[in-house]
Amino acid sequence: MADDAGALRELKHALDAETGLMLIEQGERQESPADVAQQLDRIKDQDNSTIIVAEIPGALLGYVEAQGGDYRRNRHCAYVVIGVRRSAGGAGIGTALMAELNTWAEQHGVHRLELTVMADNERAIALYRRSGYEIEGIRRDSLHIEGSYVDELAMARLSGS
Q1: Does residue 1 form part of some domain?
Q2: What pLDDT, in 10s, does the model give residues 88-144?
Q3: Between vectors from CA 18 to CA 8 and to CA 36, what angle results, nearest 5°?
Q4: CB 65 within 8 A of CB 50
Q5: Phi/psi at 46 (nearest 5 deg)?
Q6: Which of 33, 36, 90, 95 has the fewest CB atoms within 10 Å distance of its CB?
Q7: Which residue segment(s) compose the domain that 124 sits in?
């Protein structure tokens, strides 16, 4: 588990450095490998949460994480985060991760998968639409990036979609 945690932490740090399209900026992520190992243990114990990775020998190329609700009223929902290394972009990894997540959700009774995406991230929006997600609304000025406010789209996929 420690090796898994270290590799996942390394992937997330690499993504923070490579892209401005994720919530956490380079240098903001503070968790230790032990913290990540605890997160993985917690996720392993929850039926409505998962992390799925794309890997080649010796390296992780991407991941998708679904964090399920903690209460009876929202256990059927999970919030999704996905990231794919720039060097692996365009190879279908994001599509494969989202397909695997959709299969996992249906097998685990997670009826609603939801996420947010920067409104100008057309490539990601196209991926999510292909994966069955629909735009539910706009979160105006929800992020502040390099001196400007940025809108996000709220998107969701319901089981069977």
Answers
A1: no
A2: 878 899 999 999 999 999 999 999 999 999 999 999 999 999 999 999 999 999 999
A3: 20
A4: yes
A5: -110, 125
A6: 90
A7: 48-158
